[in-house]
Amino acid sequence: MTNTSYCRFHNTLADLTDCYEHLDDGDELSLEEELAQLRLIRLCVWIVERCGDAVGCFDDGGGFMGVDEYKFKRSVKLIKERHA
């Protein structure tokens, strides 16, 4: 099923969460699945590089430091206010 613009991120979040939850299953993957897993990880890194500042992933020097939960929650609040 294609993801139309009104639900693209919503649907993809559910699918990506499912992939995340199965990263360490230890299941034998087919060649196609193993390559897709690697490409997905690369894409996730690119997304963080491009958009990670929205959730406070970088320190003042641009170094990666994970997600700043306070900044994440503040961003969620601002988005919800914009859509209210």
Question: Can you put this structure into words, describing what you see?
Answer:
- The chain is mainly α and 84 residues long.
- The chain has one domain.
- The chain contains 3 helices and no strands.
Distance between the termini: 29 Å
Query: What's the number of structural domains?
Result: 1
Q: Radius of gyration in whole Å, from Cα? A: 16 Å
Query: How many strands?
Result: 0
Q: Indicate the structural class.
A: mainly alpha
N-to-C series of helices and strands = HHH
- Proportion of residues in extended strands: under 5%
Largest sheet: none
> How would you state the average pLDDT, rounded?
91
Keywords:
84 residues, mainly alpha, 60% helix, 0% strand, globular
Quick overview of this protein structure:
The chain has 3 helices and no strands. It has 84 residues and is mainly α. The radius of gyration is 16 Å and the shape is globular.
Task: Present the secondary structure layout.
Blueprint lengths: L7 H14 L9 H21 L17 H15 L1
